[in-house]
Description:
The complex is a heterodimer of chains A (about 425) and B (about 110).
Chain A: H1 6-14, E1 32-38, H2 42-55, E2 60-63, E3 79-80, H3 87-107, E4 118-122, H4 125-140, E5 146-148, H5 150-156, E6 172-176, E7 180-181, H6 184-197, E8 201-203, E9 208-213, E10 219-224, E11 227-236, H7 242-247, E12 256-265, E13 275-278, E14 283-287, E15 293-299, H8 311-324, E16 333-343, E17 350-353, E18 359-363, H9 373-386, H10 400-403
Parallel strand pairs in A: 1-2, 1-11, 2-8, 4-13, 11-18
Antiparallel strand pairs in A: 3-7, 4-6, 5-6, 9-10, 10-11, 12-15, 12-16, 13-14, 14-15, 17-18
Helix pairs in contact in A: 2-6, 2-9, 3-9
Chain B: E1 3-6, E2 11-14, E3 19-23, H1 37-44, E4 53-59, E5 67-73, E6 79-84, H2 92-105
Antiparallel strand pairs in B: 1-2, 3-4, 4-5, 5-6
Bound molecules: flavin-adenine dinucleotide and zinc ion.
Zinc ion binds near residues 8, 60 and 63 of chain B.
Protein name (chain B): Sarcosine oxidase subunit delta
Organism (chain B): Ahrensia kielensis
Amino acid sequence: xxxxxxxxxxxxxxxxxxxxxxxxxxxxxxxxxxxxxxxxxxxxxxxxxxxxxxxxxxxxxxxxxxxxxxxxxxxxxxxxxxxxxxxxxxxxxxxxxxxxxxxxxxxxxxxxxxxxxxxxxxxxxxxxxxxxxxxxxxxxxxxxxxxxxxxxxxxxxxxxxxxxxxxxxxxxxxxxxxxxxxxxxxxxxxxxxxxxxxxxxxxxxxxxxxxxxxxxxxxxxxxxxxxxxxxxxxxxxxxxxxxxxxxxxxxxxxxxxxxxxxxxxxxxxxxxxxxxxxxxxxxxxxxxxxxxxxxxxxxxxxxxxxxxxxxxxxxxxxxxxxxxxxxxxxxxxxxxxxxxxxxxxxxxxxxxxxxxxxxxxxxxxxxxxxxxxxxxxxxxxxxxxxxxxxxxxxxxxxxxxxxxxxxxxxxxxxxxx
Amino acid sequence: xxxxxxxxxxxxxxxxxxxxxxxxxxxxxxxxxxxxxxxxxxxxxxxxxxxxxxxxxxxxxxxxxxxxxxxxxxxxxxxxxxxxxxxxxxxxxxxxxxxxxxxxxx
Lengths: 417, 106
Ligand SMILES: Cc1cc2nc3c(=O)[nH]c(=O)nc-3n(C[C@H](O)[C@H](O)[C@H](O)COP(=O)(O)OP(=O)(O)OC[C@H]3O[C@@H](n4cnc5c(N)ncnc54)[C@H](O)[C@@H]3O)c2cc1C
Ligand SMILES: [Zn+2]
């Protein structure tokens, strides 16, 4: 791997940028690996990177049916925050935020992590009570989150309409200053490049079609569109397709897959300084460094693998955006798209061993897993390497749906992203 | 937006008139107390989440208000059929045949 540095930029400037070269290899699959990761999204690539970096396991392949980062990693609105209610969530999401803070240096790749603050707006008495409760719970867990009056919210985000006559009055907001955004593609590319530099094989256009098992039921490898590949351990990190992949090993999952859409506007000059989320009226908005407003909609109501959703869902979100930010009412939207998100009953992920020996799963991130990418990969790599969970993901098992020890962020009225 | 045929109203209406109500044909035990933790968990939390033809419940919430079932392909989002609650699962092989025939004709 050729390191990026100020010197490298200067050198390349002298020779018309012809020396950057390919950032990672495109190898043919070997006949077997110590570990196979199914799915080259951010979580799968991060898992491979930390397997190599933290555990010295480099005989690893990441298999991707399409192109790297083409799943939800490349389709999300990139909101990063950690102000969830429960202790387990604080542990996991704050672990991720801590890793985000040093990630560009660690990967030697600019993931454009920008801690511009995430502001969650309260529009009614219930919101106010719930968010204040979150602020208190977060502070007990050492998670940064503070309560703002409507005037303070307006000062932090000037385009906001806080007038009393607004259709969705702003009664206050919870602000996490450490939250923000990162560049989604750069996260996938940065992890891919750094993992490949440590010997990990990243194999695109390689769909897993079966999971092979031995005499004792243990995993022995995977069938793929490019033939059989053996493996001692297999980690499934397939987001919306997890149920489908786990079915190949006869494991049913407590998951449902739904379309989730996002859209961007035409690019404009910098006008929107932070991330604003409004769960009650369902609007999520920030401005990318390219100048586009990045807007997240809600999930469609039915399960689907189509990677498209209904137009009325997007319209609903735009209605809300225009009410809260009247200055955007005449902006044109450029593109919209959908991803398929895997949702658990309690809206918390599963990062765990499975009933099948050698088979591991990292899924259920639903509408909000981008923010957790580094933390998720880090603890999942530990789980695979040690065949035991990291302290941080001990509670994120599948068995919690039998024992009843849920991590119920759904009931905690947490927001989607 | 999906167009959904309500078997009670016998009309195709826009999706916004309907509420999705999860996987169909999940039977609630008549003896819930006798269920093991595993049994309850399967019933309550685990879902097939099929990639392909799924059986699901819908409710015509802004119409007749009734629940009914549907068979839908979750990859194309096309409905194969809808049928009244309580009716048995339709024969899949026949449904898929009907669809391909219809496709061939049109
Ligand atoms: C519109 C939208 C907005 C979102 N907004 C946010 C947000 O603001 N903040 C946030 O934190 N999260 C957000 N999310 C959620 C976030 O995108 C996901 O939780 C996260 O990116 C999941 O990462 P992943 O690596 O697990 O999955 P993915 O990036 O989806 O990677 C899974 C990969 O597995 C591959 N795969 C599947 N089946 C197979 C197979 N059989 N063989 C080989 N490969 C296979 C897929 O092609 C895919 O590339 C959003 C999601 C969407 C769709
Ligand atoms: Zn009806």
